[in-house]
Amino acid sequence: MNEFGHNYRVLFDAATISERVAEMGRRIPEDYQGRTVTALVVLKGSFVFASDLLRAIDLPLKVEFIGLRSYGSRTSTSGVVEITLDAKYPLNGADVLIIEDIVDTGLTLSYLLENLSTRRPATVRLASLLHKPSRTIKQVPIDYLGFTVPDQFVVGYGLDIDGRFRNLPFIATMDDPEQLKLF
Ligand code: IMP
Ligand code: MG
């Protein structure tokens, strides 16, 4: 039971996440041959994941942030995406590594990939902590994946519902999230 009187079930505890993220960080340099990576952190959901992942990547690296908001219900996107904060660096010629919290329908990422292609980066790869394949509407290639999750709403380790629960150190599924009363 959490502080809102709601049930959550831990899917991945802090130690499991930490081990997996470290593995992802070790894998990434194999594909870059020492080139400088421009990490593009998708806010807000991936800020916790990114802070751990980036410290596990042994490469020259710059960090940019992009804020995306996708409209829809509390727990699902309509595919209408707005850029709320844009990268400060133009990204042309850069080896861009997108860092995302979760690929659910894929609509947000496919919007971002299309938008990025107009900026002429040298390469674009995607690291996503989570993937919910059962909900795919648009396929997006995930180069580095943390965990696959079932068709349930998850919170914690940066992921939220209505802005809450980002600070949980684990990832949990939330029962009946559309009914959750937050104050
Ligand atoms: P999309 O459906 O792939 O476009 O995902 C849109 C955004 O919704 C993601 O970037 C997340 O921020 C958010 N999202 C999707 N599924 C979940 C979830 O289970 N928990 C928390 N946020 C989610
Ligand atoms: Mg979100």
Distinct ligands, ions and cofactors found in the model: inosinic acid, magnesium ion
Counting helices, strands and paired strands, the structural category is alpha/beta
**End-to-end distance:** 17 Å
Helix content: 10-25%
Overall 3D form: globular
What count of helical segments does DSSP give?
3
- Number of DSSP strands? 9
What are the secondary-structure elements, in order, as H or E? EHEHEEEHEEEE
Kindly report the spatial arrangement of strands forming the biggest sheet: 4-3-2-5-6-7
Q: How big is the Rg?
A: 16 Å
* Biggest sheet record: 6 strands, mixed
How much beta, percentage-wise?
Answer: 25-35%
Task: Give the secondary structure arrangement, pairings included.
Layout: E1 8-12, H1 14-27, E2 37-43, H2 47-55, E3 61-72, E4 77-85, E5 95-103, H3 107-117, E6 123-131, E7 144-148, E8 154-155, E9 171-174
Parallel strand pairs: 2-3, 2-5, 5-6, 6-7
Antiparallel strand pairs: 1-9, 3-4, 8-9
The protein binds inosinic acid (IMP) and magnesium ion (MG).
